Predict the structure.
Amino acid sequence: MRPTLLILAAGAGSRYGGLKQLDVVGPNGEAIMDYSVYDAVRAGFGKIVFVVRRHFRDEFEQKIVSKYKKIADVVLVEQELDDLPDGFAVNPAREKPWGTGHAVLMAADVIKTPFAVINADDFYGKTSFETLADFLVGCKNNGEYSMVGFSLEKTLSESGTVSRGICSVDAGGFLTGVEEHHNVMAEADGIYGDGMDGKRYRLCSHTPTSMNMWGFTPDIFEFGEELFKQFLSESAEDLKREFYIPYIVNCALEAKKATVKVLSTPDKWFGVTYKEDKALVIRKISEMIEKGEYPANLYNV
């Protein structure tokens, strides 16, 4: 059975200043996610599920989804603040979305196969999708999770600081934990970031880093739903706290409900965290087209 690709496209892009999921970076109107879908389909993914917000669903369907209908089964699901389990209600004062973990749960009714999760506005590379697809096709049991780990030095922005999930990996290549670091950037003598304790640390340039490119089996939905209920019981009144994918993964590891194989990739990540990143992304894509890695017109529409 061919795996599914779940693309998280509901973010507002606060630092970027607009709806970066739809921003054009290719020569024929392509957005970054168009290249991800192209890479995923040629790697063997058969179904594409997008998580979007209700207010831009129609625009998204018109500009994006219409391109893919000839090459893959495409489904849209919505993520809204009021999409909560029975018995819970959203605080009217909350504006911030619930986070990437909540976004994944929105796809529970439409995904029945092993699946990958990616961000809509991140470019991951052809090899990354091939490696993840191979792992997902080989999944035999629930709880066989995976993560594509990029070298930290290949995940930085030239336009400012970023937040990165720094991974701990055991001798067998399995994830033991993910710790979020903020204000990560290259300085004169190395790469530095702020840990969860507020202290600034020098980080190894080759350390495996999560760019939110995960592989899961469908059992994560039930496990994640129970965790989300617990999260809401404890933190619903915190207007800024979010429910992230790494939190679900860390809890699954602690409970011995899953293993997470860290898959290495030679690809360099790039994306549009800041508006200044856009020119660099356009240049990189143009260079790959010139090398023959992508056609000038991905979908001939």
User: Anything to note?
Assistant: The first strand starts at residue 4 and ends at 8. Residues 13-18 have pLDDT under 50 and may be disordered. The chain has one domain: 4-290. The CA atoms of residues 8 and 119 lie 5 Å apart.
